[in-house]
TrEMBL record, chains A, B:
InterPro entries: DNA_Rcmb_RecR, Rcmb_RecR, TOPRIM_dom, TOPRIM_RecR. May play a role in DNA repair. It seems to be involved in an RecBC-independent recombinational process of DNA repair. It may act with RecF and RecO. Pfam families: RecR_C (PF21175), RecR_HhH (PF21176), Toprim_4 (PF13662). One of its GO terms (biological process) is DNA recombination. Keywords: DNA damage, DNA recombination, DNA repair, Metal-binding, Zinc, Zinc-finger. One of its GO terms (molecular function) is DNA binding. Residues 80-174 form the Toprim domain. It comes from the Bacteria. Belongs to the RecR family. This is Recombination protein RecR.
Amino acid sequence: MSASRDIDALIDMMARLPGLGPRSARRAVLHMIRKKELLLTPLADLMHHVAVSVRECETCGNIGGARLCDICTSEKRGTGEICVVEDVADLWAMERAAVFKGRYHVLGGTLSALDAIGPDELRIPRLVSRVAEENVTEVILALNATVDGQTTAHYIADQLEGRVRLTSLAQGVPIGGELDYLDDGTITAALRARKEL
Amino acid sequence: MSASRDIDALIDMMARLPGLGPRSARRAVLHMIRKKELLLTPLADLMHHVAVSVRECETCGNIGGARLCDICTSEKRGTGEICVVEDVADLWAMERAAVFKGRYHVLGGTLSALDAIGPDELRIPRLVSRVAEENVTEVILALNATVDGQTTAHYIADQLEGRVRLTSLAQGVPIGGELDYLDDGTITAALRARKEL
Ligand SMILES: [Zn+2]
Ligand SMILES: [Zn+2]
């Protein structure tokens, strides 16, 4: 393949990333080419390393480089509390707030009748087994304040009722808001003021 | 380096691309990881190929994979007309309009007293020598309608006056507008209605 075809293919593929369109993809590719040593080559290397090493944690669904993620294997993280989030972006948002010291469970989405996503398409059975097998005292449902997010929270609450303390993020999460858009302070306040389900 | 550090480094580097910030870089990286086979691995490969093969055309400054670019070596492109543009993004914009059948000269920027960019920082001496050496009958100055773009156009016109027919894109280029933002029809109209300097 010729260099100009590679460049065209690179632009087409970059344009498929969320937040980028054809024009911003063209600008990004030209910028990378201009900064070949600083940007294009290191980006290619990093992407290659990540593609080869990245995998989902078998316990919580977080991404990392081994069978279990850094958080699940960290001795600094408590085992009593599990914070349930929809996806890894939400886990990252929680970690940026740096207020939660327990472990996570990444569902991989929400229940959705429209998209035919049921409990088995998500990591819900694994959550139920973790609660049975680990020394879990509290499950914090940190799902987005959307219809699907709240439907999912209620479904999980039904599954776990009576087995563990169930709480949800409360104060500060705006109606219809998504966790990944919130500032750290709001997330901190919501966690501190969490309420019983 | 651990996978999570690679992921963090990848996000940091993606956030430095034009049009992306930290949040959109995080979303883009998660999206790429979710579509590892379709997106992350092929993107890494393409970036690597481009980084290894891309170079500037010795004649016109366009990017390609050889000493001379695809346009300079194409037998379908006329040698009589040279279209002078600021950068490769503008060349791409002209090519998308598909109305110009000659060759290009990419300056690599504009003259700028503020940024201390003089004629020798740009590809202006090479343009003057091309006009002397090739069978050039017309130089079309397709520079942006900005102050620096027009200053540069006047400087080039001074250098080439009396040696070649000099024209500029005219009708349709909005005041303060940049070529790369225009639709194909506007560029076509501007080229067709080009006027003598
Ligand atoms: Zn884990
Ligand atoms: Zn060329």
